[in-house]
Amino acid sequence: IESELFGHEKGAFTGANAVRQGRFEQAHGGTLFLDEIGDMPLDIQTRLLRVLSDGQVYRVGGHLPVQVDVRIIAATHQNLEDRVNKGEFREDLFHRLNVIRIHLPSLRERKEDIAQLSQHFLAQAANELSVEIKTLSKKASNFLNNCLWPGNVRQLENICRFLTVMASGQEILIEDLPNELTEKSTPLKHDSNAWQEVLSTWMDQELVKGKEAILDYAQIEFEKIMLDRALIFTQGHKQEAAKKLGWGRNTLTRKLKEFGD
Known about the structure:
With 261 residues, the chain is mainly α. The protein has 3 domains: 2-97, P-loop containing nucleotide triphosphate hydrolases (Rossmann fold), CATH 3.40.50; 107-188, Helicase, Ruva Protein, domain 3 (Orthogonal Bundle); 214-258, Homeodomain-like (Arc Repressor Mutant, subunit A). It is 50% helix and 6% strand. It has 13 helices and 6 strands. Helix 6 crosses helix 8, helix 11 (214-233) crosses helix 12 (238-245) and helix 12 packs across helix 13. It starts with a helix and ends with a helix.
């Protein structure tokens, strides 16, 4: 990455058979986009800070500075303040970069964009593959709106390419969606409302599928899971499990009989 950004002189290392301009020199007078800057090694961060401070770059193996005038746009999926506190990102570099800050919400936080993005990616995939553009059925569109999208926009783009190739008809149905959306469970995040978010998404998906009497089924399953986990946690001690659940001992015994345990 050092040679890629700053360039190198001939003979600077094995395989350096000629002088090479780095990205900073190539972008002189323009803009350089640095993606995932939060993952940049600390030694490269130091060199980057020097370039931003002095407007000069030293090629690998070189001793003469090269003047560069470059506007930097940087992006990261990480919390840089946290990385600064952990000593994983230079604080001075953070403040040098943090001039105009734009927070782009995750895809699940801007669900109103999903339909338009899906249409765009389906058209793009159809154009690349020289096939007719496919459209989403209303139910499939609603289903996509209620997915968690851990892979963000990139995941949506890849799924649209998959559907362009694999969907049997011109209209994409829920049955055409890949298993990663319809079957794979999404791990809970470690925050206070993570399970409520997953439960809300599951409920939305059940409604889209046309299910009825959802609460009758869900309440039984919810109680079975809670009871099972409480008994595992208390190593089968029923009175302690009942206390964890906020039940009386008789209620727990009755539930065990109802569930066939």
